[in-house]
Design a protein that fits this description.
17% helix; 3-stranded mixed sheet; 9-stranded mixed sheet; alpha/beta; globular; Glucose Oxidase, domain 1
């Protein structure tokens, strides 16, 4: 990894025990700026639909089945007035829209903002940097930067600050401190790892730090295979553990882009209300854009 002096960091910025990270940038002013975007009440979900697969085995089980982030056991017995089930959720799954907590990534044996891993993440759950930081929900202004306005980004395209600023100029919008950045690269639903994915560069993460981005969501994240050798996954190896920036992976942004184009509005109220399950490294979410 690159020398720590070359990497942007928020360690110590909000205190040694901080667990909010860049969510600290969502001030009352930022929330009000977001609320002002909700003018008509039209709402768009940024979550990918999930169809659970059953826990099945034996001679009648399917020989092949697409992997699902949610597995289900139906539990009902006899003549009952209701049906119930149990589910097993794989939080960090390539087909699940989920938010990464700050304890998800470890840097040199430490969790943001410098807590030893052994004290932060234990077999009994996450004690520091967990989903507990999302208990109050997240509400701010969201801004879509549509990099796929004339077609999907090319394979292995490095997403740079120049891409961000060109989108701002094209759309007539500017990201401000406390805003959530929502990115569209036109690669929704791509899980073919034989095809090189575009991805965010380290310079783009530096740009987010300078602008004061509070949260990142997109249909693209880190490139695969990595585009940079010194920092192979800038979002997950720098933005999350050093900046303390929560990441919403596998966001579904096609409908959002269509609505933004229809309304010629690329800013909206962005709301995330994860379930209040503490002690996790991440959790599925249904982010909402409200116009």
């Amino acid at each position: 990894m690159a020398n720590d002096q070359e990497l942007p960091s928020n360690w110590g910025r909000w205190g040694a025990d901080d667990e909010l990270g860049t969510l600290n940038l969502i001030t009352e002013e930022a929330r009000a700026r977001g609320a002002a975007q909700a003018r008509t009440g039209r709402t768009v979900s940024l979550a990918r639909p999930i169809r659970p697969t059953p826990f099945v085995s034996g001679p009648f089980a399917p020989l092949a089945r697409d992997s699902s982030p949610v597995q289900q056991i139906m539990q009902y017995a006899g003549d009952v007035p209701a049906t119930v089930d149990m589910i097993l959720v794989t939080n960090h799954h390539v087909s699940s829209t989920h938010i990464d907590a700050l304890g998800h990534q470890v840097l040199d044996g430490k969790v943001y903002p410098g807590h030893p891993l052994a004290e932060s993440v234990t077999p009994a759950g996450v004690r520091h940097g967990s989903t507990a930081a999302f208990a109050a929900g997240i509400s701010t202004r969201g801004v879509l930067l549509d990099l796929a306005f004339d077609g999907p980004l090319p394979a292995a395209h490095p997403i740079t600050p120049e891409d961000f600023e060109a989108a701002e100029a094209r759309q007539g919008v500017r990201l401000e401190s406390g805003d959530a950045l929502v990115l569209r690269g036109g690669w929704a639903g791509v899980v073919d790892f034989e095809k090189p994915l575009p991805g965010v560069t380290l310079d783009a993460v530096r740009w987010m730090h300078q602008r004061g981005i509070s949260l990142y969501a997109g249909d693209l994240g880190d490139a695969y295979p990595p585009l940079e050798t010194a920092v192979p996954a800038p979002l997950h190896r720098v933005a999350l553990p050093l900046l303390g920036m929560p990441l919403i992976d596998v966001a579904e942004v096609e409908e959002l882009a269509a609505v933004c184009t229809e309304l010629n509005r690329y800013a909206f109220l962005f709301v995330v209300a994860p379930p209040r399950i503490h002690g996790l490294t991440g959790v599925p979410v249904n982010p909402l854009a409200v116009f």
